Amino acid sequence: MAHKITLIPGDGIGPEVTGAVVRILAAAGVKIDWETVNAGAQAYEKYGEYIPKELVHSIERTGVGLKGPVTTPIGGGFPSINVALRKKFDLYANFRPVRSLPSLPTRYPSVDLAIVRENTEGEYSGIEHEVVPGVVEALKIITEKASTRIARFAFEFARREKRKKVHAIHKANIMKMSDGLFLRCCRDVAKDYPEITYGEHIIDNTCMQLVMNPYQYDVLVMENLYGDIVSDLCAAFVGGLGLVPGANIGHGCAIFEAVHGSAPDIAGKDLANPTAVLQSAVLMLRHLNETAAADRIHAALEKTYKEKKHVTRDVGGTAGTSEFTDALIANMEAVAAASGR
Ligand code: NAI
């Protein structure tokens, strides 16, 4: 039976990188009925809504989405589609594994970190107002419920994957009540996982520690804004934003998307690296129990990077999006032939 999956192509480089991934999943033999509905400015032109009802109904039906990046206007305009979708479907956990790929020259050759970011509140609650002219107030919302469930998600992941350490990242020395509540929830949850070492680091120190020695960390759990920033920082360890995948997970619904944005500087030029969305799709396949296809794609991805011949410019190559995609599909066939499938 084919999987029904909602495809949100996004804008900027979104259609190029999601298009490449759709081709790769088809070549891997995964049967998917894509329901394609866009969000953002392009959706507004077609449906008169930034998040059209068609998209909401599709995600309600399929429970799984693959999403390209959507441009968010800065300092005005419509609110972030990403934040709105995460809230609408209560996709409370943003999971961002950061793993080195072979043969990519990076400062640290074998990074394997997992960032677990609270996805529904914090500074991203979007509650801002002008108190008096020249004074704006923004509310940072931290709740016991959201902090406890994100800590539980991080520890459950650590237990399932036999990871050794979970660090809660915070600024409770300054935000004593809000970050203090987050920390208390993490400490309480940690008690149920005695086999996992629990640590706490302040966010600014964490950034320095990560750059000095990322190997000291394993799983990091943090609030929304900190997670957004730290995951871009960590992307640099493994070759940049073109590589790092993400998953937004809720109860009965999950949307998979890269960490990167719509990259308007390279959009429409066949320059974008589709690896980040592809690795997000691999997470999606594992979520759908399509383990063999996920392994096949991952093996072809590693082979393509080891060969170095057809990688994109952001990681030091010369290939465009389509050349990289063709090479990966050819490598998938080579991997399948070598394993006798
Ligand atoms: P960005 O991630 O789009 O780009 C930052 C830099 O990384 C640029 O130099 C870009 O060319 C490069 N880059 C990103 N992805 C790449 C890829 N796949 N291959 C090669 N190079 C890549 O971040 P920026 O410029 O801050 O944001 C642009 C827009 O994207 C904004 O409107 C922002 O709000 C939106 N955005 C959307 C996200 C989403 O939909 N999930 C996430 C982050 C940003």
Structure in words:
- The chain is 41% helix and 18% strand.
- The protein is of the alpha/beta class.
- It has 2 domains: 1-106 and 239-341, Isopropylmalate Dehydrogenase (3-Layer(aba) Sandwich); 121-218, no CATH class.
- The strands form 2 sheets. The chain has a 10-stranded mixed beta sheet with strand order 2-1-3-12-11-4-5-10-8-9, with helices on both faces.
- Strand 11 (247-249) and strand 12 form a beta hairpin.
- Helix 1 crosses helix 9 (275-287), helix 5 runs parallel beside helix 6 (178-190) and helix 10 (291-307) packs across helix 11.
- The longest helix is centred in the C-terminal third of the chain and has 18 residues, at 321-338.
- The chain is globular.
- The model has no long low-confidence stretch (mean pLDDT 95).
- The site of 1,4-dihydronicotinamide adenine dinucleotide has 20 residues, from loops.
